[in-house]
Amino acid sequence: MKGNIGAVQEHDFDTLTGLWEASVRATHTFLKETDIVWLRPRIRNHYLIHVELHAFRDEHHAILGFVGVANAKIEMLFIAPQAQGKGIGKQLLQYAIHHMKAVELDVNEQNPDAVGFYQHQGFEIVGRSPRDGQGQPFPLLHMRLK
To answer: What is the pLDDT of residue 43?
Structure first.
């Protein structure tokens, strides 16, 4: 899909949080409603401000995906459900690698489509944690660019 990748401003945070929620509901089927409700304000008010954010915008300037990087690590990559499978994730990932110098990421083990996507894009599993960054029992796979 054609579009532009560019920096995100704080006034875009509500849009990004809504996109995050829609994407998580479509792909993170292991999460309960209470998990999403707990995470949503943390995404909006704490996590977004701690990463360098870039978004994919379509020809109408609508944000269809975004990536967040900190310390050469992709901390978040989310695509709107209606835009998944159209190459936006690959474009954002390549942007993060080439322009933001990202070489690492963590991915939920219970999201096999995402694991396969990152492996297909040249990442390999280098470790595993039984809990996510919030201490919840959602195993993470640590991946590094080959």
So the answer is: 97
Residue-level pLDDT at 80: 98
How many CA atoms are closer than 13 Å to the CA of 71, on its beta-carbon side? 1
Tell me the backbone φ, ψ of residue 142, rounded to 5 degrees: -90, 130
What's the angle, vertex CA 17, arms to CA 15 and CA 21, rounded to 5?
A: 120
82/34 Cα distance (integer angstroms): 24
Residues 6 or more apart in contact with residue 77 via CB below 8 angstroms: 65, 66, 67, 68, 89, 92, 93, 96, 105
Q: Are strands 104-108 and 73-79 parallel, antiparallel or unpaired?
A: parallel
- DSSP 8-state secondary structure symbol assigned to residue 58: -
Going by DSSP bridges, is the β-strand pair 73-79/63-70 parallel, antiparallel, or unpaired?
antiparallel
Helical (H) or strand (E) element with 78: strand 73-79
* Residues counted in the chain: 146
The answer on pLDDT for 134 being more than 90 is no
pTM of the model: 0.95
Phi, psi (deg, nearest 5) at residue 138: -120, 100
Best CA proximity match to 44, nearest among 7, 26, 19: 19
What CA–CA distance (Å, rounded) separates 90 from 116? 12
